[in-house]
Amino acid sequence: MARTAAPRSFSEVVRRTVRLGKTLTTSSPSRFAIVVFSALILITTALLSLPIASADRTVTPLADALFTAVSTICVTGLSTVDMATHWSGFGLGVVFVGVNIGGLGVLTLASVMGLAISKRLGLRAKLIAAGDTNPMRAHGGPVNESQTVRLGEVGSLLRTVAISAFAIEAGLIVLLYPALLTAGVDPVTALWEAPFYAAMAFTNTGFTPNPGGLAPFAQNYYVLSVLMLGVFLGSLGFPVIYTLARQRWHVRRWSLHAKLTVLTTIVLFVVGAAVFLLLEFDNPKTFGSMDAGDTTFQAFFLSAMTRSGGFSVVNMGDLNGSSMLAASMLMFVGGGSASTAGGIKVTTLAVLALAVISEAKGRPSVQAFGRRIPSDVQRVALSVVAWGATTVALSTIAISQLTKFSVDEVLFDVVSAFGTVGLSTGVTERLPDSATYILAATIFMGRVGTVTLAAAVAATSRTQLYSLPVERPIVG
């Protein structure tokens, strides 16, 4: 007669569970990032579910609290409730702290805190911190250190991150406070709204603390320009800020990543403004009632915000269908790698564009600024676009089926969620709970990164000791 195994003690089960959790979270930076992001979202959800977090002191429904928490930690800016009227001062305070944590990146923030406490970083801490500066580290195999910040420079990068984030937000506060007073905001209220707007601009979130959003400042081009400046600096990415801090105007000494990020960002900013100017100049609901100067400025502002900023002066639902499609394309690209912006990232677009140009010219390799871009970077860029497009497509189909809303409006909000932009046609506020959870998952995928998420859940990389025969399928 077979003997039955002795039941395991509760302490043994706990030890095995803890050991399994430690293995999963420490085996790679990508898995650690997902665990920490998830934990922060759960904590924020719990805080926003408290009666003290709502203005009327009632418990916020789980779907709304969870969605706001995801949008906060993932620095998105979409919301299913009116941020200015639904949440109390405590609730907005939770959002303010959450976007600053999410904007820095949880791995970077954890490493900065460790550096401040211990005054040094071990090898494991450096590897974890480096996961925020180079998604290539989410994969097994060697990493070409010349692609990004070198492992030995991680400590200097973290100091630059902490100092630059504090300095930029402080500078934005100094610029915004007098402007808010001039616009008629109460001095005491401005003491809160200036830091809130500064954080939302630098982290590319786009939440507004006052009813009506930016409507009171629609003609205040100084305030709008300061917000654009904050969005631009936040979207560059900390590795680029680190390079600029070290090399300043010595452009030839910039890394290839910094050159591609700055150049592509400027090109998209100008081209986006030109497209919106061309498509919306005669739309009476948006730019049609403005003079040439106002139309030009608002086109540049809209171009900057669709890159991940999330602030809006015009109603996105009033845009022409062609403009909504152009905005969706800009939101899908997003900002720089390892920045507070989302999307597939401008360097991904740049690498793919260079690959297309090289193929058209018959070059054997992809080149830029006197450097060759290796094939593994090109494969990751292609994977990011493919996974991102798949995520957007599946989410759009699911939400459209559940809500029966117009596909173009749903697509706009889904791309905004994936790119962690925060602009909306009004669809997000009308979603049922089931569709709200799908959109929240889309935000999480967009912020954590589809390739990073895939690497985190994939099995441990295996070394292949053989090579299969080559056969070329017909492409195109």
Automatic annotation (TrEMBL):
Pfam families: TrkH. This is Ktr system potassium uptake protein B. InterPro entries: Cat_transpt (IPR003445). GO terms for molecular function: monoatomic cation transmembrane transporter activity. Keywords: Cell membrane, Ion transport, Membrane, Transmembrane, Transmembrane helix, Transport. It is found in: Cell membrane. One of its GO terms (cellular component) is plasma membrane. It comes from the Bacteria. The chain crosses the membrane at residues 32-53, 90-117, 157-180, 221-244, 256-279, 329-357, 377-398, 434-459. One of its GO terms (biological process) is metal ion transport. It is a multi-pass membrane protein.
